[in-house]
Each structure stands twice: as C-alpha cells, then as structure tokens.
Task: structure prediction
Amino acid sequence: MSSSPPSRLPDPDKLDMLRRLDQFREWHSLDDKRFCLVCGKIIVGGQIQINGGTRGNGPLRLSCPTERCNSIPMDWVLPTDELVALATTTTSEDHNGASSKIADRDEEQGGLASRLRKFALHLKLAS
Ligand SMILES: [Zn+2]
Result:
C-alpha cells in the first residue's frame, strides 16, 4: 500500500544481475544492446527491468523495458547491423513483414541468435 519506489540497484549490481539472469548472452556492460524479438526494439542493458524476488514470491527475472512486452532474455539477441537498421526504420504497421525479414537474415547467418530464436519460438508454440 505504501508508495515505496521499486528498489533501484546500483549499476555494478545490475550488470551482475543481468549476467546471472540472462544466461543466453554475455553482458559486458550496461551499455550492451539487445534486439528484442517480441517488441522489435533495441534495448539497452541499463533499461532492462529486474522484477520479482522482493516479496519472496519467486525468482528474480529480467523483463524488457518496453511497455506490455513480456519477452524473456531468450528473446533478446545481439543486434546485427541489419537488425539495427530494421528496428530504426520499420514502422509498426509492417511489423510482421519486418519480422520475416529478420528471420531470413538469421537463417543466412546461421548463428547462435538463429538457434535461440528457433528455440524461443518452439517454447511459445508449445505453451
Ligand atoms: Zn521487448
């Protein structure tokens, strides 16, 4: 009931939390960028929200700073130049088209991002 603000962690601690809670990617600094596959935005480590754990109701988890985006760290891939270009030039109207373009890019690169994305999709389809 009190209006206590959400606990704010000092930056080094936050970076440590990112590293502990996001085991899919390495975090070198809070300036590291990720591309959120769910909301299609570039997010920065320092913006990522850390939720849970404060009232003993479950483990800490990371969440995307974008409102209504319920992605998990698995959905965050390292932004390639192509992703950055798409994220900054794409309008919300052709979001679906952009997503498929991103998918093609990932397939071409065949990197870890692609495998993570497939894994994430698989989880979503299975749930
Ligand atoms: Zn997001």
